[in-house]
Design goal:
By secondary structure, this protein is α/β, with parallel strands linked by helices. It has helices at residues 13-24, 38-48, 62-69, 86-94, 107-118, 142-145, 150-160, 165-172, 176-190, 195-204, and strands spanning 4-9, 29-35, 52-56, 76-81, 99-102.
Length: 211
Amino acid sequence: MHFSRVVIASRYPVVLLGLNCLLEAERDFKVVARCNDGASCFEAIRRLAPDIAILDMSMPDIFEQAMLDIETSAVRLVFLATSVEDRDLAMLAAAGVYGVMLHDEEPETLIQTLRQVADGQKMLPPAPGEEAISCTQTVMPEKYLAMLTERERQIMNLVSEGLSNKEIGRRLKVADGTIKVHLHHIFRKLEISNRTVLATLAVSYAGPSGT
């Protein structure tokens, strides 16, 4: 059976242990190195040539180091973040990064994202103005909505109130880019393509409110 070889890096031991346990429980991933700083991480990437590297953005200067050290590597970079600004998303996309995952992500969503990255899909939200607008789906089985986290339900309901990403971020006290990452995951889970359809669904299923 084919599996993806993964290097994980974070300065927090609990994050390293949690990611290691999560990935080792899946047959299609194998953790080949756990690193607590950028230098050891990139040395491991050069030495072991993994398929995927998960880098915690809380490590000092990790993005700058990644762009310098991975230029000739085939490794697929995925960043782990507490919050993300829009400018960070644009920079990551321009640099060819494959994905951004939030620290409060559900384990199932994290694994699904990594599997899509392993298949060669880039899992970054689109830049402003690039969101797809051609979706007419307005009926959603309850089981799909049940896949949403409490925070995702909050955002869904705030979208239905007509709030922009900036307004939602201000309401929830997080960065605009973090809202964009959450919306990207919501769209993927519900198999829709834009916030207009999301707002329609929220109105149709007005019961499950997290606000």
